[in-house]
């Protein structure tokens, strides 16, 4: 079994459609999921006044499962195409995945 990873992207809501379009254009063998989330921070400078009052920041999360061979090029393109967008990412190894 080849090594696979989960790329998680946390993006401002304004980037939901651009990221969906961008990920759909990327040619890789695995799919992705997206869903709304609430971000919470103890750093009030990163929140608007409304977000400080409600205690949450609306975000969109994308989970992209992909092979190790595809990870580097996808991250390079992401960093170029979405520079300055405040998109946060993390990469996690997947030890097992499948369908039942």
Automatic annotation (TrEMBL):
Origin: domain of life: Bacteria
Gene3D superfamilies in alphabetical order: 3.30.70.120
The protein, known as: DUF3240 domain-containing protein
Organism (species): Methylocaldum szegediense
Phylogenetic classification of the source organism: Bacteria, Pseudomonadati, Pseudomonadota, Gammaproteobacteria, Methylococcales
């Amino acid at each position: 079994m080849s090594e696979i990873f989960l790329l998680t992207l946390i993006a401002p809501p304004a980037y939901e459609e651009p990221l969906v379009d961008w990920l759909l254009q990327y040619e890789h063998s695995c799919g992705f999921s997206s869903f709304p989330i609430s971000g919470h921070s103890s750093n009030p400078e990163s929140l608007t006044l409304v977000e400080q009052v409600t205690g949450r920041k609306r975000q969109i999360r994308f989970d992209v499962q992909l092979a190790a061979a595809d990870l580097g090029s996808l991250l390079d393109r992401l960093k170029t195409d979405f520079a300055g967008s405040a998109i946060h990412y993390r990469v996690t190894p997947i030890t097992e995945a499948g369908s039942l």
